[in-house]
Design goal:
By secondary structure, the chain is mainly α. Among the domains are: 141 residues, no CATH class; 125 residues, 3-Layer(aba) Sandwich (Rossmann fold), CATH 3.40.50. The protein contains 24 helices and seven strands. A five-stranded mixed beta sheet has the order 4-3-5-7-6. Strands 1-2 form a two-stranded antiparallel sheet. Strand 1 and strand 2 form a beta hairpin. Helix 14 runs antiparallel to helix 15 and helix 15 packs across helix 17. It is globular.
């Protein structure tokens, strides 16, 4: 970090006291303060709350690997029906988490070692997150911009949600990789040496998971398109796409066992993506070759043919994957569960439940887009600034479409805001330092959240409308104390709300019929059919058919499925205490608010 110049090329700024301290020191201080803030907010609940369902399943996956399961074996029989769950997640993330558990296990009991690892892992990832943001801002605005970027990142609520203690799923790693690829790719137009790093980060992000797939594909397409218009950028595009393809191929060899090389999936790294990326990258290499220098039409034809060939290879391997990562999801599961998953909701849908969060995101993205547009207008020949503007705009649109992509857009937003602030001059007798300070204070996400809350409160007051009620606290349904109470029962298969499944498996010896993972098609189909049944005899038949031993419900979760809203549905009847004769309540006071039932023997005895 100390290698960042005091000013970007062509930019003259007076030395600022912030720049007298090495950027690395500011980064370390920001990491420590952010970690302290997050630990203070969550320390009391961290031992009893694993995070969300992904964190619980990631812990289960790591435990099984540390217990001796093969590196390539991502199957667990504790979810779903007889065939269990074959996870679409990458084993690569397990290395860091498992390594920390082993490290802490040298001097702590296993349970405490897991707690320490769950606490430390996401906080350690703040270092590369803040580091990439600072580096990217420093490239464009010097040391002052780098320091301000760290300030924006440390107050970036949407992004930091993935880095809270206890968050050990793969989202944080994907955010760092994909957002980092975009930031580094923009720098490549002034320093070609970093172009391969952009490709490596993009490929690694895809190897971990497909959440950032649209951003990576768009990045590869844009750098190639730029190369077609700017001959001088051809080598940059060739380096980025080749590094991405090679990284994907290596990750495939490292993460996918030879027996599964020809098992084509739509939702995880498979041969179809590796081959398509290789074909596409090869066409860019040909386009960038000296033989085609000055032959614009030939270069366009090569890239066009390569793109079509890559698409053909991808489609031939598994045609259904053209419909996207969730193409293989059961229609009933898609309609009743997948469309209701919180992270797939749009910004407008988020505004219906938590309008403050939605407005905060909108204000952040809008201000960042304005700042990025201004930076590009100030240097219209800066190809990196143009790429940054295009990718930020796309990330903002995708974040508005599905809020799970908001962290990517938020991380990207830190750089233009910081560079814009660092370049503010003195105005109307107000010093540049004062203006920069005010900008950072007013446009960081913590302050924007306060502004959003004030605007919404004033709107409610003027319109004489009551504020939207806060969502119910559902965390009580996933609390270790409540779920662990089930462990005193003989092991069996537990049916219940889909989101409870991962915690039952993580905290007890039981198996869970359902969990919020689309690969559990048959189990989710069965769970939905049970929960939405209006015929109690049919519900009993289905429960016995899947071999359920127990059934649980947790009222704070409310109706969990689209078709379970009617008063005659099985889930709704259970919620109001209408217990069918084939179930008997098991009194487990420690499990409250979870209610536990056992299926009576089929003969009614």
């Amino acid at each position: 970090m100390t290698a960042i110049n005091d000013a970007a090329p062509g930019l003259r700024m007076r030395p600022h006291w912030l720049t007298q301290v090495p950027v690395a020191a500011w980064l370390g201080l920001a990491v420590l303060l952010t970690a302290a803030r997050e630990l203070h907010a969550r320390w009391s609940t961290l031992p009893d709350l694993l995070g969300d369902t992904d964190d619980a399943v990631r812990l289960v996956q790591v435990r099984e690997w540390l217990a001796g399961k093969s590196w390539f074996d991502l199957h667990t029989d504790r979810f779903g029906l007889a065939d269990g769950l074959f996870s679409h997640w990458s084993r690569l993330v397990d290395v860091g988490i498992g390594g920390l558990i082993r490290l802490f296990g040298w001097f702590l009991p296993v349970e405490q070692a897991e707690l320490a690892a769950r606490t430390v892992w996401p906080l350690l990832l703040l270092i590369p997150l803040f580091g990439l943001v600072a580096r990217a801002a420093g490239w464009r605005g010097g040391r002052l911009a780098a320091v301000l970027a760290i300030a924006f990142a440390a107050t970036s609520l949407a992004a930091l949600a993935q880095f809270r203690p206890g968050r050990i799923d793969h989202h944080s790693v994907m955010v760092i990789s994909v957002a980092g690829a975009i930031l580094v790719a923009a720098r490549a137009y002034t320093d070609r040496r970093v172009a391969p790093l952009a490709g490596v980060l993009a490929g690694f992000g895809l190897a971990i998971g497909y959440e950032g797939l649209s951003l990576v594909v768009a990045l590869m397409a844009l750098v190639t398109l730029i190369a077609l218009f700017e001959r001088g950028s051809a080598r940059i595009a060739a380096s980025i796409t080749a590094a991405c393809a090679i990284t994907l191929a290596l990750a495939f060899l490292v993460g996918v066992g030879p027996t599964r090389w020809f098992d084509i999936a739509c939702d995880a790294l498979a041969l179809n993506v590796v081959l398509a990326a290789g074909v596409g990258a090869a066409s860019v290499q040909v386009m960038a070759s000296d033989r085609l220098a000055g032959r614009a039409l030939a270069r366009w034809l090569v890239v066009g043919a390569g793109g079509l060939a890559a698409l053909a290879v991808y489609a031939m391997a598994q045609p259904v994957c053209l419909a996207g990562p969730f193409a293989m999801v059961d229609p009933l599961v898609r309609a009743n569960w997948l469309t209701q998953v919180a992270e797939t909701q749009s910004l407008l849908q988020l505004a219906q439940t938590t309008p403050r969060d939605a407005l905060t995101a909108a204000l952040t993205l809008t201000s960042a887009l304005v700042a990025q547009a201004w930076l590009w207008r100030a240097a219209p020949r800066d190809t990196g600034a143009l790429l940054g503007l295009a990718m930020l705009a796309l990330a903002a649109l995708l974040g508005a479409w599905q809020i799970k992509l908001l962290p990517y857009a938020t991380v990207l937003s830190c750089v233009p805001l910081a560079v814009f602030a660092a370049r503010l001059p003195a105005l109307a007798g107000i010093s540049a330092a004062t203006l920069r300070f005010c900008f950072v204070v007013l446009f960081n996400q913590v302050m924007l959240a306060q502004v959003a809350g004030a605007v919404l409160g004033l709107d409610s007051l003027l319109r004489s409308r009551p504020e939207i009620a806060a969502p119910a606290d559902t965390s009580v349904c996933f609390d270790r104390k409540a779920v662990t109470a089930l462990a005193q029962l003989p092991a069996g298969l537990v049916a219940g709300p889909i989101d409870i499944g991962p915690f039952i498996v993580a905290f007890t010896p039981h198996r869970a019929l359902a969990a919020p993972y689309h690969r559990l098609n048959a189990a989710l189909h069965a769970q939905i059919a049970i929960w939405t049944s209006s015929d109690m005899a049919e519900a009993e038949r289905l429960l016995r058919g899947v071999g359920a031993t127990y059934l649980v419900e947790c009222p704070p979760l409310g109706p969990s499925l689209e078709k379970a809203q009617g008063s005659g549905q099985f889930e709704a009847r259970l919620a109001r205490g209408d217990i069918p004769a084939f179930l008997e309540r098991i009194p487990l006071p420690a499990a409250e608010p979870i209610k536990v039932f056992r299926l009576r023997p089929a003969n009614g005895s």
